[in-house]
């Protein structure tokens, strides 16, 4: 590759990598943070309730919602329950769908325009359903659907309308059902609903928040709210709330991408300077013959134009690929729906504009440093003249070292992230994931509204599943190691509450999952509603919960629901949840039949239900019809068949994506830093060609030429890499010595590879040039 | 001539050099027979483009001949490798260039020390002593911490001479050492080189200036890449019928 081709390739790669990162990041920022949400006058809509921790999402209990009522500050209000699952079928399709129950005021208060039909639930009218745009497309092909029926948990609901494509408030929801009191108290004790209000003209979110907080404070004891919970009650503009999860990360991404652009600009200026110096004599001659400065700068401008065009085109292609990767990995609670995110025209304009600016700045700096006058002094006799002053040289050196430090930091943290994430797809200890068939289902509140009914269903399904051909053990559980995770609080050894995974199970699940029973017994048929409440716990529970041991009684804590004693009757081996790479979390298993009605009412919408059956091998598990038991016992419910191995694979997908993203980010950072190092060496070499020829003439060996021409002058990579490693070690973020060592060694190897062409050229310096080109 | 019976330092037999650029072959030197003896002062003269600098670069082992035989201090060097030629240059050759070729971001002392930095077996103390002695011999001790950009042209060339002698070479090759200097500074540099030659250092110098070549034991005149004349200054003057005795004038300078 000729030096010019090498320059074009390095310059294009530098500009393309940095601009692609900006393009992808700015597309996300534009779509998620800058584009208005699909609500009418979104500035007037607030989310109100209690804010747990620093989460932007506010939870609302029905009790507080009723107490707040309709103050004069509000024009309208609405309430939505937490998203749950329901069995649905229509048009030959059947699936377990994400369902959210919303009251009549919820969608009108948000001010959403329907894609089809209407979005109103009558207060007293018939129950109707509103579809998401995605379900409408998948099941009804996007054709007019208003008035058609859809079966939900065995009941027919006419479709009222379809939501717009971009609609999302925290969760992906397939269908919206009316929120009405149901037998069993569904929303009667709801604590984590979503309350929205449309403010009257002149009212502010903070003023309304103060009103809500005052009401909560006045009724704190009736609501069972401690002082800290009351203090977190308030109101947040809906835009801020729905973007709250995404904003810090995305702004940080954008800042990082601008930093990368600045770095790329410096790299490009270095490359242009090196290129300018390669043709220094020619430029000096033009200047000597009276060429105006712009003529001397023309070659640099042409180089910059070629790199600018090639780099921008490559960046847009690469940026769209990068956007695809990032889009697939967006958390599902970010707004809007990831599928709707596309680069808009102004993203393209901004990206191209920034690429042009970066290229022009680099060209101006490069042209100035490699300017005709400087080259003239250098080439026409003033031996004291240098291509660039000491200050400029030091600034460039510092830039390179900063880049290397930054890349080392990113590489080290990415290595930590990769190790962390890659740990998540290891199979759980003590639990072979192959050969286990699963069927997820969700018992509807209409038929299974009490604990005895749900316990009866679970036990019937467990019995039926265990008697089917090929199943050596089977049972029903509300939690798998792969999630979704449901946690409750127990007192930790230090006294503070700790999170414990809680699963309701029938007998047979432990055997079906292949977990080892270390001591005591399993849950069995004798653990009924009338007997002493019992729990089987894992080793981590014994190690972390206060007073835990075989035969001891521990207290399950619950704010508002009261504590409940449980006797530990068995200890099982630890499993490990997918994505969980920290120490195994404590887990407790309790029988369905012993769950108090009050807890069941609070938990039921949050629980997932699985039939688990142990088969001989994975092939059998794949072919096994685990849902047959459900069809026989509750034919209106839909089962989602799967296997534990597949569930494990799917659950670890996020971790795998995180790992690959970490690698991608590390590759981007190290790639740019390596290119920067390469271009800095190129400049150094171009500026020292005469010195190198002199050193060769004075008898320097090839290695001495490398030391003299390339490594001298602070171009060594070690200081930057060492500084980066030191910053990682000094940072409060999690790091590990192997990750830092790997990142440092990797950077060093890359820098050595980047330096090889320059070292080769330095070592090959021809001594006769000292008399020819002096 | 002062050194007709001393051993040869450089011995060239039928040496030629052809530059190749693509399909174009350009013979620059043809059939050069030249012997430089120890302690001799040889001036190389000729019009521009006649091959003086190329000859000097071959003599200084900066480049290799395309054909012919060449010995340096008795050792055949035509087939010598890059490394071997570098070792020979470092140990036995000192260079003085027209454009001084000082490294701009190195101090005067560091510039002078450069040949020693590339030589094995020389400790820091010895190196510093040699640098100090070399700078003292050219009268530049007081500027050793300065940088080349802070010196005049004449001072820079004196530093270059100090760099050429710091390694105690057998031969100093000077390419138009006065070409970038005014008359006064040119004479000072020539006086320095003359003293070195008088002390026994072999000196080969490319020059256009007859006033300076008059001091040489021999003047090798090149034309179109061939040696067309090899004589003392007096012989040339006699042949030319001139009455000037520039040799005497130069000796007065030394």
Could you provide a short overview of the structure?
The complex is a heterodimer of chains A (774) and B (254). By secondary structure, chain A is of the alpha+beta class. Chain A has 3 domains: 233 residues, no CATH class; 105 residues, no CATH class; 216 residues, no CATH class.
Question: What does the model show?
Answer:
The complex is a heterodimer of chains A (774) and B (254). With 774 residues, chain A is α+β, with helices and mostly antiparallel strands. Chain A has three domains: 3-16 and 257-282 and 349-423 and 655-772, no CATH class; 83-187, no CATH class; 436-651, no CATH class. Chain A contains 27 helices and 22 strands. In chain A, helix 9 (247-278) runs parallel beside helix 12, helix 10 runs antiparallel to helix 11 and helix 25 (718-730) runs antiparallel to helix 26. The longest helix of chain A has 36 residues, at 293-328. Mean pLDDT of chain A is 82; it is low at 182-188 and 379-388. Chain B is of the alpha/beta class and 254 residues long. The longest helix of chain B has 16 residues, at 183-198. Chain B has a six-stranded mixed β-sheet with strand order 6-7-8-3-9-10, sandwiched between helices. In chain B, strands 2-1-4-5 form a four-stranded antiparallel β-sheet, covered by helices on one side. In chain B, a hairpin with a 2-residue loop joins strand 4 (67-72) and strand 5 (75-76). Chain B has a single domain, classed as P-loop containing nucleotide triphosphate hydrolases (Rossmann fold), CATH 3.40.50.300. Chain B has helices spanning 52-59, 82-92, 108-117, 124-137, 153-165, 183-198, 210-213, 233-240, 246-253; strands spanning 8-21, 24-37, 41-45, 67-72, 75-76, 93-96, 171-175, 202-206, 218-223, 226-231. Chain B has nine helices and ten strands. In chain B, helix 3 crosses helix 4, helix 3 (108-117) runs parallel beside helix 5 and helix 4 crosses helix 5. Chain A binds chain B through residues 381, 383-386, 390, 690-691, 694-702, 704, 713, 767-768, 770-772, 774, and chain B through 53, 56-57, 60, 62-63, 82-83, 86-91, 93, 95, 97-105, 114-115, 117-119, 147-150, 156, 163, 175, 180.
């Amino acid at each position: 590759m000729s030096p010019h081709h090498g320059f074009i390739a390095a310059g294009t790669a530098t500009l393309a990598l940095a601009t692609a990162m900006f393009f992808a990041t700015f597309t996300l920022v534009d779509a998620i943070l800058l584009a208005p949400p699909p609500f009418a006058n979104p500035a007037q809509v607030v989310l109100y309730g209690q804010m747990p921790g620093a989460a932007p999402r506010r939870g609302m209990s029905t009790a507080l919602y009723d107490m707040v009522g309709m103050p004069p500050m509000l024009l309208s209000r609405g309430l939505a329950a937490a998203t749950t699952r329901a069995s649905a079928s229509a048009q030959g399709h059947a699936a377990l769908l994400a369902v959210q129950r919303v009251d009549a005021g919820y969608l009108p208060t948000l001010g959403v325009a329907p894609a089809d039909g209407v979005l109103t639930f009558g207060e007293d009218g018939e129950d109707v359903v509103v579809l998401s745009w995605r379900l409408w497309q998948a099941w009804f092909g996007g054709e007019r659907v208003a008035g058609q029926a859809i079966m939900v948990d065995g009941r027919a609901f006419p479709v009222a309308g379809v939501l717009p494509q971009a609609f999302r408030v925290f969760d992906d929801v397939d269908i919206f059902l009316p929120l009405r009191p149901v037998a069993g108290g569904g929303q009667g004790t709801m604590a984590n609903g979503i309350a929205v209000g449309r403010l009257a003209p002149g009212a502010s979110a903070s003023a309304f928040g103060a009103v809500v907080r005052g009401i909560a404070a006045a009724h704190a004891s009736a609501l069972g709210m401690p002082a800290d919970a009351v203090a977190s009650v308030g109101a947040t503009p809906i835009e801020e709330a729905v973007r709250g999860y995404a904003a810090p990360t995305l702004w940080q991404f954008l800042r990082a991408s601008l930093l990368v652009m600045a770095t790329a600009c410096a790299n490009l200026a270095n490359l242009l300077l090196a290129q300018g110096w390669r043709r220094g004599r020619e430029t000096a001659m033009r200047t000597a013959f009276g060429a105006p400065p712009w003529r001397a700068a023309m070659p640099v401008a042409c180089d910059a134009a070629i790199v600018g065009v090639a780099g921008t085109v490559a960046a847009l292609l690469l940026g769209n690929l990068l956007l695809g990767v990032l889009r697939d990995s967006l958390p599902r609670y970010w707004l809007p729906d990831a599928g709707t995110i596309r680069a808009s025209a102004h993203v393209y304009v901004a990206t191209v504009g920034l690429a042009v600016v970066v290229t022009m700045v680099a060209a101006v700096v490069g042209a100035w440093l490699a300017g005709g006058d400087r080259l003239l002094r250098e080439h026409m006799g003033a031996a004291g003249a240098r291509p660039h002053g000491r200050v400029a040289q030091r600034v460039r050196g510092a830039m390179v070292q900063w880049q290397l430090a930054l890349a080392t930091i990113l590489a080290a943290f990415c290595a930590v992230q990769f190790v962390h994430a890659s740990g998540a797809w290891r199979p759980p200890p003590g639990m072979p994931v192959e050969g286990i068939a699963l069927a997820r289902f969700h018992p509807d509140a209409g038929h299974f509204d009490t604990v005895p009914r749900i316990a009866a269903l679970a036990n019937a399904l467990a019995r039926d599943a265990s008697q089917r051909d090929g199943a050596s053990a089977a049972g029903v559980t509300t939690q798998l190691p792969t999630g979704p995770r449901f946690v409750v609080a127990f007192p930790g050894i230090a006294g503070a509450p700790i999170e414990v995974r809680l699963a309701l199970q029938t007998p047979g699940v432990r055997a079906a999952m292949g977990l080892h029973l270390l001591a005591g017994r399993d849950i069995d048929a004798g653990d009924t509603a009338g007997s002493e409440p019992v729990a089987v716990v894992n080793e981590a529970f014994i190690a972390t919960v206060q007073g835990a041991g075989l035969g001891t009684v521990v207290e399950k804590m619950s704010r508002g629901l009261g504590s409940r004693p449980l006797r530990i009757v068995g200890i099982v081996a630890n499993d490990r949840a997918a994505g969980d790479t920290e120490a195994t979390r404590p887990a407790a298993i309790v029988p369905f039949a012993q769950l108090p009605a009050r807890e069941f009412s609070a938990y039921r919408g949050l629980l997932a239900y699985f039939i688990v059956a142990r088969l001989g091998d994975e092939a059998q598990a794949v072919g096994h019809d685990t849902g047959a038991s459900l069809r026989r016992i509750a034919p209106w419910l839909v089962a989602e068949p799967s296997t534990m191995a597949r569930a494990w694979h799917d659950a670890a997908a996020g971790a795998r994506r995180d790992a690959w993203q970490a690698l991608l980010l590390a590759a981007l950072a190290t790639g740019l830093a390596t290119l920067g190092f390469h271009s800095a060496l190129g400049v150094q070499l171009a500026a020292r060609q005469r010195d190198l020829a002199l050193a060769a003439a004075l008898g320097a060996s090839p290695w001495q030429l490398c030391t003299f021409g390339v490594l001298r002058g602070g171009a060594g990579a070690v200081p930057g890499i060492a500084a980066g490693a030191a910053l990682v070690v000094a940072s409060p973020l999690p790091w590990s010595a192997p990750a830092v060592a790997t990142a440092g060694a990797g950077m060093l190897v890359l820098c050595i590879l980047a330096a090889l062409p320059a070292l080769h050229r330095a070592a090959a310096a021809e001594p006769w040039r000292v008399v020819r080109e002096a | 001539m002062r050194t007709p019976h001393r051993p040869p330092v450089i011995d060239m037999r039928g040496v030629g050099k052809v530059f190749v650029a693509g399909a174009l072959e350009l013979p620059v030197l043809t059939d050069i027979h030249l012997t430089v003896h120890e302690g001799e002062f040889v001036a190389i003269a000729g019009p521009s483009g006649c091959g003086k600098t190329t000859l000097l670069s071959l003599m200084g082992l900066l480049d290799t001949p395309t054909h012919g035989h060449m010995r340096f201090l008795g050792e055949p060097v035509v087939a010598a490798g890059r490394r071997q030629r570098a070792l020979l240059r470092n140990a036995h050759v000192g260079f003085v260039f027209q454009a001084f070729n000082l490294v701009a971001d190195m101090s005067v002392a560091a510039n002078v020390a450069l040949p020693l930095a590339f030589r094995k077996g020389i400790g820091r103390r010895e190196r510093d002593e040699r640098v100090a002695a070399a700078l003292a011999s050219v009268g530049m001790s007081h500027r050793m911490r300065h940088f080349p950009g802070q010196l005049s042209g004449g001072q820079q060339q004196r530093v270059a001479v100090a760099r050429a002698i710091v390694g105690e070479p057998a031969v100093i090759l000077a390419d138009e050492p006065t070409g970038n200097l005014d008359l006064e500074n040119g004479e000072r540099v020539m006086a320095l080189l003359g003293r070195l030659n008088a002390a026994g250092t072999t000196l080969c110098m490319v020059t256009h200036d007859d006033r300076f070549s008059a001091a040489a034991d021999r003047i090798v005149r090149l034309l179109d890449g061939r040696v067309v004349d090899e004589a003392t200054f007096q012989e040339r003057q006699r042949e030319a019928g001139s009455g000037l005795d520039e040799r005497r004038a130069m000796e007065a300078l030394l």
